[in-house]
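Sharing a chain and its predicted structure for anyone who wants a worked example. Both blocks are below, sequence first, tokens second.
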Amino acid sequence: MTGAGIARAAAALTGLAVACLLLATLGDALASMMRYTATLMALNQIVPPFLLLGMGRFARRIPGALWWADPLVALTAFGALSIAVSVPQVLSRSLANALFSLPVGLLELGFGLLFWAQAFPWTRQIRGDVALAGYLTLGNLPMMCVAVIWMTSGALLYAPYVDIVCLWNLTPLEDQHYAGFIMLLSSLPMQIIAAWYLVCGLFPERKAAGEG
């Protein structure tokens, strides 16, 4: 096996191991909003790049690749899920804990893969770098808006958290604020990639120089 093949295998195994570990911790999804948010953000912002790096160009030969890498499908699914996970207050605690554990964790991983596929040369469907930069930024906006609302709200938005004791004896509202900060921080890698594609699109000579 070549060095590149070993690196791809290591990335894929790392992604799978981290995903299994994170999914196993979602048994009590509402024990802490901060811990729960960190787990979901890792599933849709950290694990997908490792898996896509592991798949490499083989990803194009996966059955249905054109569908799962479709930009509109990815944008809609990723944005809708970012909004959906922010409103469990419409559910009872028991129902929210059931739905917002493993099912949502799997959706975060799957939709994260859809969205991150556009950031890799071997799976992206958007050819223009400037257009791709705008696409990635647009896809990240719902998550960033939710994060800012959580960080700045003076009211507890997650009703199931009202009567629980959070990690480190934080109040539910403090836990919510920290959860928003974690979500905002998790959006930065994609924003950096979007900025890179924007620079490559506006200054193609620099991209060519870097590849040379």
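Comments welcome. The two ends are 26 Å apart (CA to CA).
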